[in-house]
Amino acid sequence: MCGIFGYVNCGICRERRHILQVLFNGLRRLEYRGYDSAGISIDDCLPPSSSATSSTSFSTSRSPLVFRQEGNIESLVKSVYEDVAAMELNLEESFSDHAGIAHTRWATHGEPATRNSHPQTSGAENEFLVVHNGVITNYEVLKETLVRHGFTFESETDTEVIPKLAKFIFDKAHEAEGDQPVTFSQVVLEVMKHLEGACALIFKSKHYPNELIACKRGSPLLLGVKELNEDASNESTLNDSKFLSKNGQPKEFFLSSDANAIVEHTKKVLVIEDNEVLHIKDGGVSILKFDNARGIHGAAPSRPSSVQRALSILEMEVEQINKGNYEHYMQKEIHEQPESLTTTMRGRLIRGGSSKAKSVLLGGLKDHLKTIRRSRRIVFIGCGTSYNAALASRPIMEELSGVPVTMEVASDLLDRQGPIYREDTAIFVSQSGETADTLNALEYASENGALCVGITNTVGSAIARRTVCGVHINAGAEIGVASTKAYTSQIVVMAMLALAIGGDTMSTQARREAIIDGLFDLPNKVREVLKLDAEMKELAELLIAEQSLLVFGRGYNYATALEGALKVKEVALMHSEGILAGEMKHGPLALVDENLPIVVIATRDACFSKQQSVIQQLHARKGRLIVMCSKGDAASVCPGNSCRVIEVPIVEDCLQPVINIVPLQLLAYHLTVLRGYNVDQPRNLAKSVTTE
Ligand code: M6R
After folding, report:
1. CA distances from 330 to 15, 327, 466, 478 (A)
2. Which protein residue has the closest C-alpha to ligand 1 atom 12?
3. Per mean pLDDT, which of 262-276, 294-308, 541-555 is the most reliable?
4. At 543, phi and psi to the nearest 5?
5. Following DSSP, what letter does each residue of 238-285 receive, concatenated?
6. How many CA atoms, within 13 angstroms, populate the side-chain half-sphere of residue 492?
7. The CATH number of the domain covering residues in 326-529
8. Whose CA is nearest to atom 9 of ligand 1?
9. For 146-197, how does the pLDDT look when each residue is reduced to its tens digit (9 = 90+)?
10. Whose CA is nearest to atom 10 of ligand 1?
11. Which residue among 99, 263, 618, 634 is the one 20 to 30 A from 52 at the CA level?
């Protein structure tokens, strides 16, 4: 939810036009995190001497400029260029030092409107400006206090208290200290002490030109550093503190909610940790950290201490975040599943030799497998698509581990305060690794003493850091809001997890080896099922005007029914429901008539004959059926050629959900495009749901 971005150029001339482009491009890369309004702040003037080399003589009498606009990034871009022209600001004007900030919003407090867009300001002079991702839970109390001190608020956001509090603290410090200057970090450290909830923040101030402060608690934030004269290779010494120190080299700094907006500039990054306050100034970065900062529960903070951090190299290529030859990210991500699955499995499947059995190696888990095998229960916890992926993996986990497996939607577990014990293994599944409900459930399960395992696509994410051990999905960046390739990779990771947990049981060895063979062949099978693209487009053309679609599945493919329906509803904005076929006669059958389209998943597995019977019963009630079956089964599943059939390749039963979801992803994609909706940024949704 919400993307924040910052750009600082130090000791290198950048035209205003360039600065704007960097900020806009940063926002474009983050737009999938929120797209109902956006804004930026830049400086409006050169130092009085017009010398583009000295930042020290910058006139603090001029306030930073703020541009905000309801709507998507392109609406902001258009309005900024119009405003800049109206203000007669020269786009060619160069700044040797400059700090700009930007924000793309997914509304939580207050409707999408210019006044609620970020940067939020301390007041008319823009003395302090803030872009924020997260939610400040005690903002009402802070607002009341600030109102009592004469501040007036113009927005309904929780964020507005932050710049106003900064101004309040800055003014108080000046009153108390006279001419003694208070530093930007001192102001922000004091602000942070008063904030509760989750946040990633970037501060810009009229009083501290060319400086930015970044800090976070909960929500993600990264710093990218590019030294302009550095060796072209990104392999240079990361521990070399020169990248963060003031060494006189011209530098650019990029702050971003995620790596997508940084990788095109540099691969040298620092994943900012909770309670760190980073101060970018004069080409250097200083980091202060609270040991025990006020957190979600409001514990009192200790004194901050200065910390040294090394940069790391992003394992990501720019191509990953481009659409390539595809029209949409969702389309690209559906079609790249053979490759993403290959990456997910790389180095983890062991073929076995003449005397060695085939096996699975999950480096991040090997020291914990014994504990997991001894657990009283495995509890899968997630939301949305990640929950569905876990549900698809539940049967194989039960079968191979011999441990009872239960499922929890993260928010529901918290609502019920459901029982979690120290003998439990709790597995948290999340593409982003930052979903608030899943994170809260993780905190809850940790407090209850369970072994917490993470399965996430985002290295360095909160779930990756806060779990004891885990497995990265390695599906590559997923930018379409609708999760596709992460879903199939999650299922594969959980199948590998089941294989690893069950890896010491002789009685299941043949079964495990068959699954491993199936995993090796899976990318080819996905390639094959992707050939249904044109057929799914045709089906979408038939369904374009429908109001509703039901999807019936059971066993391994109950999850496919839920996930297929979720895809259709979230992007095509068509009502769609995934139904457990075993429940058909307990209610849903009443909906069946000759108009309502129903997809029945009836691929070969232990439930096949039951699904055949479901088809018969739906057919007897003149149901309008679309049956998904294994290749060669069309005639046997579809009585009298009375229904439309989707034939898919057959794989091991526990991997079949990976194959079966692909036609439904394609169907959802084509339905959306044909219905004229935005497929990558569906109405009201954001990629990372960082609020409860
Ligand atoms: O990042 P996560 O996997 O934790 O996200 C969970 C859900 O918000 C997410 O899967 C959501 O359901 C997707 N938009 C589905 O396509």
Report:
1. 35, 9, 29, 8
2. 384
3. 541-555
4. -100, 0
5. SS-GGGTS--S--EEEEEESSGGGTTTT-SEEEEPPTTEEEEEETTEE
6. 34
7. 3.40.50.10490
8. 384
9. 999 999 999 999 999 999 999 999 999 888 877 678 999 999 999 999 999 8
10. 385
11. 263
Compute the distance from residue 661 Cα to the ligand 1 centre, in Å: 16
Positions of E strands within 431-522: 451-456, 469-472
Spatial distance between the Cα atoms of 413 and 428, rounded to a whole number of angstroms: 12
The rounded mean pLDDT for the chain is 90
CA-CA distance, 260 to 257, in Å (whole number)? Answer: 9
Please name the residue that has the structure tokens 């206090």: 145
Neighbour-count burial of 296, counting CB atoms closer than 10 A to its CB (0-12 exposed, 13-18 middle, 19+ buried)? middle
DSSP state of 155: -
Per this entry, what is the length of the chain? 692
Local structure of 35: helix, strand or coil: coil
The verdict on the CB of residue 483 being under 6 Å from ligand 1 is: yes
Alpha carbon of residue 286 to chain centroid: 28
**Minimum-distance ligand 1 atom for the alpha carbon of 456:** 3
Q: Structural domain boundaries of the chain?
A: 3-319, 326-529, 531-681
By the 8 A CB rule, do 202 and 310 touch?
no
How far apart, in whole angstroms, are the C-alpha atoms of residue 476 and residue 350?
A: 22
CB atoms within 10 A of CB 447: 9
- Indicate which residue of 2, 383, 638, 643 is catalytic: 2
Is 482 a pocket residue for ligand 1 (Cβ < 6 Å)? yes
Fold of the domain spanning 3-319: Glutamine Phosphoribosylpyrophosphate, subunit 1, domain 1 (3.60.20)
Over range 606-618, report the average pLDDT: 94
Cβ neighbors of 651 (< 8 A, separation 6 or more) are 518, 521, 522, 525, 658, 659
Same-fold call for 3-319 versus 326-529: no
Number of Cβ within a 10 Å radius of residue 690: 28
Residue for token pair 């650019």: 252
Ligand 1 site, residue 342, Cβ cutoff 6 A: no
State if residue 570 touches ligand 1 by the CB under 6 angstroms criterion.
yes
Q: Indicate if ligand 1 lies below 6 Å from the C-beta of 435.
A: yes
Residue ID of nearest Cα to ligand 1 atom 7: 384
Instruction: Please calculate the CA angle 330-198-123 and round it to the nearest 5 degrees.
Output: 100
Q: Is 638 assigned a catalytic role?
A: no
Q: Could you tell me the fold of the domain covering 531-681? A: Rossmann fold (3.40.50)
Residues 6+ apart with CB under 8 A from 273: 216, 289
Cβ(437) – ligand 1 distance below 6 Å: no
